[in-house]
UniProtKB/TrEMBL annotation:
Protein keywords: Signal
Signal sequence interval, chain numbering: 1-30
Domain Choice-of-anchor A residues, every copy: 50-300
Alphabetized InterPro entries for the sequence: Choice_anch_A, Secre_tail
Pfam families: pAdhesive_15, Por_Secre_tail
Residue ranges of domain Secretion system C-terminal sorting in the record: 417-484
Protein name: Choice-of-anchor A family protein
Length: 487
C-alpha cells in the first residue's frame, strides 16, 4: 500500500530500480497511449471529462478493497468501499498518473474510512456520511462532485463485451501444449506469426501452472483467448518481457480468482467478477462485474501497446446467435441482415471450447439485404457444458467464425461408466459401439488422452487420482460424456 506522504528511502530505491528495469517507455507516457485496444473511445466521454480515456482499471460493478491500490487511473461504475487506506495514481511499478486529469471516478457511492492521497481529479457521485475525501498534493488535482456519467458506463460495457466477442472469434494461429506433472502444469504456447499470435487456452483448475511463450517474433502481438468460465489461479508464473504487447481475453468467464499471481498482460473480462488476493494485474484491466481486493492485490500502471487486430470482414452481417434446450436436444438460431457471396454455415460443437467438431452444415442465402433467419438442431448434445460456433464460409472459400455460445445441460447420459469411483479398470456402457469413433479421457486441465476401450473396458491404472471426463465421439460427430472419479 503506497501513500503520497510516505515516500521513504525503501520506496525511493524501488522507484529508481523500476525505472531502469521496466524501460523508458513506461515513464514517457504518464497517461499511456490513447490508441490501444482497451482505451475508452472518445464517444463514451461524458460532459467535462478530462483525459485521453486510457485507464489502468475500469470496474463496471462495485469495488471493495481491504488492501491494495490502483497505481494508475481507476473508474468504478458502481460503489467504491475501502475500510482502510487506498491510493490512486502513485505509480511505483510503471508510470505515475497525470496530475490534473480525471484519474479516479466513482459513479455510485463512495465510502472510505481513512483519508488517503490520490494524484489527479477525484470525480464522485454520492458519499457516505463520515467518509474522508482523498487529499491531493499541491497541483495534483481536486475533488469534484456530485457528478454522474463522467463516462457512459452502460454503453461502454457493451463496447467491451463486443470487443471481447470479436477477439474471441479471431482464428487461432498458435499451438498450446500442456505438460501435466501432477500438481503443476507446464504450458507451452508456440507461435510464429509476424502480426498477432492468437492462442486458445484452457487454464488448469486446482493446480499451479507456468506459461512459456516460444518463437514469438520480436514485433508481434499476443492474444490469449481463455476458454474457462471459472478461472481459479493460485500461484504460478508467466513471463513479463512480453507484457506490453499481450492481451488476455476472458470472453466466457463469470468469475476470476487471482491469488499470489502476477498476470503480466492487459486483461479484458467484460462479464466476470474478480477476486484479487495478493499479486497484481500488470497492464490495463477491464472487469465487467465486482472486484474484491485483499492482501495487497494491486492494479499496476504498466502501459500496453496491444492494438485490436485487423480481422477478415465477415461474409455475412450476423445480428444474433443463440442456443436453447429442446427436450434432450439443443436448438441453434441465428439471423443475418446482409449477405454477399456467402456459401454456407458450418456448425461446430465443443465440450471444452478448445477442441471443435463439425456437426452440420446449413446453406446460406448467398445474396441478401433483408433479415434472414436460420435454425439447426443438435440431436446429440453432451451432458454438461456445450459450446457452439458458426464457421461462416464465402463462395471463394474465405471464412470467419462467429462468437461462441454455450449452454449447460443436465441430460440422461448416453454413456455410463462403472464402477465410479474406479481404482484401475472401468466398464463403459453405450447404446451402439459400432457407431463409436473415438474414446477419450479428459483431465481437469483440459488435456485429452485417446484411449482403447476393447470390449468396453477402460484401463485407468496409470492415471493419477482425480476427476476425469470419459468422452465418446460418434462417427457422425456427436459427443457423449460422463464424469468419473479415479481413486
Amino acid at each position: 500500500m503506497k501513500t503520497f506522504f510516505r515516500l521513504n528511502y525503501v520506496r525511493l530505491a524501488s522507484l529508481i530500480l523500476a525505472s531502469f528495469s521496466l524501460g523508458l517507455q513506461n515513464q514517457i507516457y504518464a497517461q499511456c497511449n490513447s490508441t490501444v485496444a482497451l482505451t475508452v473511445p472518445g464517444n463514451y466521454f461524458g460532459s467535462g471529462f478530462n483525459g485521453n480515456g486510457n485507464f489502468n482499471a475500469i470496474v463496471f460493478g462495485n469495488l471493495h478493497a481491504t488492501g491494495g491500490d490502483t497505481e494508475g487511473r481507476l473508474a468504478v461504475a458502481g460503489d467504491f468501499t475501502a475500510p482502510s487506506s487506498y491510493s490512486v495514481g502513485h505509480g511505483s511499478i510503471g508510470a505515475p498518473a497525470p496530475d490534473n486529469t480525471d484519474n479516479f471516478i466513482v459513479n455510485g457511492n463512495f465510502n472510505n474510512a481513512n483519508n488517503y492521497s490520490i494524484v489527479g481529479n477525484f470525480i464522485y457521485n454520492t458519499v457516505t456520511a463520515g467518509s474522508q475525501y482523498p487529499t491531493h498534493a499541491s497541483g495534483q488535482g481536486t475533488n469534484i462532485g456530485p457528478i454522474t456519467n463522467r463516462l457512459a458506463f452502460g454503453t461502454l460495457k457493451t463496447n467491451y463485451v463486443n470487443l471481447s466477442t470479436t477477439l474471441a472469434a479471431i482464428t487461432t494461429t498458435g499451438t498450446v501444449v500442456y505438460n501435466d506433472y501432477g500438481n503443476y502444469v507446464d504450458i507451452q504456447l508456440n507461435g510464429t506469426t509476424a502480426s498477432t499470435n492468437v492462442f486458445s487456452l484452457t487454464l488448469p483448475t486446482g493446480k499451479t501452472f507456468g506459461l512459456t511463450f516460444n518463437s514469438i517474433p520480436p514485433n508481434s502481438q499476443i492474444l490469449v483467448n481463455v476458454t474457462n468460465k471459472i478461472v481459479d489461479i493460485n500461484g504460478g508464473s508467466m513471463p513479463d518481457d512480453l507484457r506490453t504487447r499481450m492481451l488476455f481475453n476472458f470472453p466466457l468467464a463469470t468469475n476470476i480468482s487471482l491469488a499470489s499471481y502476477a498476470l503480466q498482460a492487459a486483461v479484458l473480462a467484460p462479464s466476470a467478477d474478480l477476486s484479487g488476493n495478493g499479486g497484481s494485474i500488470n497492464g490495463q484491466a477491464i472487469i465487467g462485474g465486482n472486484v474484491e481486493q485483499t492482501n495487497g492485490f494491486e492494479f499496476h500502471n504498466l502501459c500496453s501497446s496491444f492494438i485490436t487486430p485487423t480481422t477478415t470482414p465477415l461474409p455475412v452481417t450476423l445480428t444474433s446467435f443463440s442456443v436453447q434446450k429442446e427436450g434432450i436436444q439443443t436448438s441453434l438460431n441465428w439471423a443475418t441482415t446482409a449477405e454477399t457471396n456467402s456459401d454456407r454455415f458450418e456448425i461446430q460443437h465443443s465440450v471444452d471450447a478448445k477442441n471443435w467438431n463439425l456437426i452440420g452444415t446449413v446453406i446460406a442465402k448467398g445474396e441478401s439485404t433483408v433479415l434472414s433467419n436460420y435454425q439447426f438442431t443438435h440431436s446429440n448434445p453432451a451432458n454438461g457444458e456445450n459450446y457452439y460456433r458458426l464457421k461462416m464460409i464465402d463462395r471463394d472459400a474465405t471464412f470467419a467464425y462467429s462468437r461462441v455460445v454455450e449452454i449447460s445441460l443436465d441430460l440422461p447420459s448416453a454413456v455410463s461408466v462403472y464402477p465410479n469411483p474406479v481404482v484401475s479398470q472401468a466398464t463403459i456402457e453405450t447404446q451402439d459401439w459400432t457407431k463409436v469413433k473415438e474414446v477419450s479421457v479428459i483431465n481437469t486441465a483440459g488435456k485429452r488422452f485417446s484411449m482403447s476401450a476393447a470390449s468396453g473396458k477402460l484401463d485407468l491404472s496409470n492415471f493419477s487420482s482425480g476427476i476425469y471426463i470419459i468422452q465418446l465421439k460418434q462417427l457422425n460427430g456427436a459427443v457423449s460424456s460422463t464424469k468419473i472419479v479415479k481413486q
